[in-house]
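Table S2 (continued). Query chain:
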Amino acid sequence: MESIVAVLLLLIGGASQAGAEPTLDDWVRATEQARQAAVHAERGSSGIPMIEKDDPQPDAPQVKGVYATAHSAGGARLETLLKLVDDTELNSLVIDVKDDYGYITYPTADPALLEMGTAKKIIKDPAALIARLAEHDAYPIARIVVFKDSVLADKRPDLSFVTPEGAVWKNGRGESFVNPYRKEVWEYNVQVAKEAAKLGFKEIQFDYVRFPEGFENKADTLRYTKDERKRIEVVADFVKYAREQLTPLGVRVSVDIFGYAASVPAAEGIGQDFELISKYVDVIAPMVYPSHYSAGWFGSKVPDAAPYVTIDGAMKDTFEKLEPLGPFKPIVRPWIQDFTASWVKGYIKYGKKEVEEQIRALKDNGIEEFMLWNAVNRYTEGVDYDLE
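Corresponding output:
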């Protein structure tokens, strides 16, 4: 209220100094400008109310993690990954509990999930897995692939996008997505997350929280349920809903997001708005793999060949994007590259030096947390993850 009064006095005072008595229109205009100024101060540039966040995992370590498929976590490779944790500064595994195809990767006991018929017993004994991670002080994070879900799309075309010919739409890689406008899809994924929390995972990391790439070019030709909300709004609404459901269970909520989403006003086509999503999460995980940036980004002809420069530029854009959130900023924990992108023209082979250059760029921007991505879970040996 005090801020509104101050702005009103300033605006009306300006009218008086201009030699004219303030009119009713002046008061109306001044009141509206003051109201908008107050909203911006309290809500940030997107106009969405800020969310008070109490960290549900206040004793969590500064996470330095690696990605593990369900096959790795449920098979022999687990011992290799645990040895990596034992022998280095790494302290966390990000494990698929709902994978890129849409399969729930453990034997769910939830009747509603069982009824969907989307579970596989890849991780045969999740309780034993959590206990094993605890023995090695490995912080357990459950990765859930949300809207890229070929399995559910095939079983429930009504929850997906349908072509004019009546078939479930697939992208160029043969993958299908389910519809972020459908609340049933939200509930299904959050139910998986709730079960993961009860199993002992400390954080739920949602991936593919978006529409398909290039969706804006095909949206008008596909049949699917939607309402008046913009795509960026419906995606952010899902994240808000998920956090409301999961925070009482004592788990953090994190979201993977395209790295370039921090460098553009909003990725309207796929529905990812960096600031909107960041308001509702405990951790934001921009995927800033240098290989994923095209020529010219951050002044590099081949960003993949300039890991320090690319990560440094991406982090500067990230902090600029999060600045309007003030004290409501989430933890920034990027995904970085531990693989060689041989498909990129001008690529370089990634090894110890290239991984450390990315970590150094993070540290130079004040970021201590990160996760390493390698799709087959083979990570570079000899890396100094602390760089003291």
